[in-house]
Amino acid sequence: MTGATNRFEAWVREEPRLLGGAGPGTIATAGADPSAGAAGTLKVMTYNIRHGRGMDMVIDLERLAGVIAASGAGVIGLNEVDIETERSGGVDQAAALGELLGMHVVYGPNLEYQGGLFGNAVLSRFPVLMARNVSLAVGERARWGLLCVEIDAGERAGEEAGGGDEPGGGGKAAARGGAARAGGEAAGVAGAAAGGRRRAVHVLATHLSLEAHERAAQLQKILGVVRELEGPVVLMGDFNIDAGSDEDPSRTFEPLLVDAWVQALALRRGAAGDTAGGIARGLASRWEASSAESRTERSLEAAGYTFPSDAPCRRIDYIFFNRHFRLAGGDAVYPLDTQASDHLPVVAGLRFA
Asked: Domains in the chain, ordered, with CATH?
């Protein structure tokens, strides 16, 4: 839990294997997956892990790591990650997942809880350039945050992140890497792409309040952060907002960001040029109809539900991206069927525009 001078600043742990080190493999990872190095592509995942507690009420980080590894995602945003809390057995969950998967780890603590910390994390096969943690506290309620990470998904970085041609190339680190300066460059990886073209990508992982009036303020704060960023941006997390509602975050982020799931539905209908908010309003109007086409549309939308994982009936977990990306196709966004948490993870395949 070392690395940040302020307890609530972001910190980074580098994965030795990705920096040229070695470690015995424990979880098979998609080392040759196209998302982690194929030209112009990036596969991302958002996942509220509920401190590793599945629907069977068992905390199992190896089970979670297996789900993540099987997805082939190169960048993962996690919510509800514990560091050394009583309920999680004093385990540093962010570090443990990073070691199991052979990934760089960035952690953004938002709350002191049960003797430890509670917050968001980003796992990355790509070098981490910068990291900062933005508080989304409302009054004295400080459990919410926005973890902002800049990675290098450039040509050489992609090669290194892929971990070679062996599918089992990922693994548990033999030792933990150094920590990044909070809000600054990650030690040892800033020059990782010196021999290739650097491609900085802003990855934002967030978790919003259960209260609507608090979420409204949080959405505006996130929008302010996004407006300041240049280049490719991915925003993902548990927004605790039902898709298609009056509060749908697309209405706040349009036209800067596009809802990946809504865009995927648009691609399937041949309406990819529509704005996210326009598509959402179109879906809402179709829901009011009773035609066979409307029932099909509702079925497609239901396929994107993420909560609860044992009987999904709400879409509250989102992946957004800006104009520097486009979807890899209409089938490139999907939740994974697993009960390793009370939320379903969502995966999106993005191509650089």
From this structure: 11-352 (3.60.10.10)
- Please give the Cα distance from 57 to 91 (Å, whole number): 17
- Predicted confidence band of residue 188 (pLDDT cuts 50, 70, 90): very low
* pLDDT score of 207 more than 90: yes
How far is the CA of 169 from the CAs of 24, 65, 156, 330, in angstroms? 9, 14, 17, 30
| Helices 61-71 & 93-101 angle (0-180, nearest 10) | 50
R_g of the chain, CA atoms, integer Å = 19
> What phi and psi values does residue 147 have, to the nearest 5 degrees?
-90, 120
What's the pTM value of the predicted model, to 2 decimals?
A: 0.81
State the Cα–Cα distance between residues 157 and 162, nearest whole angstrom: 9
Residue type, 90: G
Calpha distance 113→90 (Å, rounded):
11
- 143 and 93 in contact (C-beta within 8 Å)? no
Q: Counting beta carbons within 10 angstroms of the beta carbon of residue 114, is it exposed (0 to 12), middle (13 to 18) or buried (19 or more)? A: middle
What CA–CA distance (Å, rounded) separates 194 from 211?
A: 45
- Map 106-175 to HEC letters: EEEEEEEECCEEEEEEEEECCCEEEEEEEECCECCECCCEEEEEEEECCHHHHHHHHCCCCCCCCCCCCC
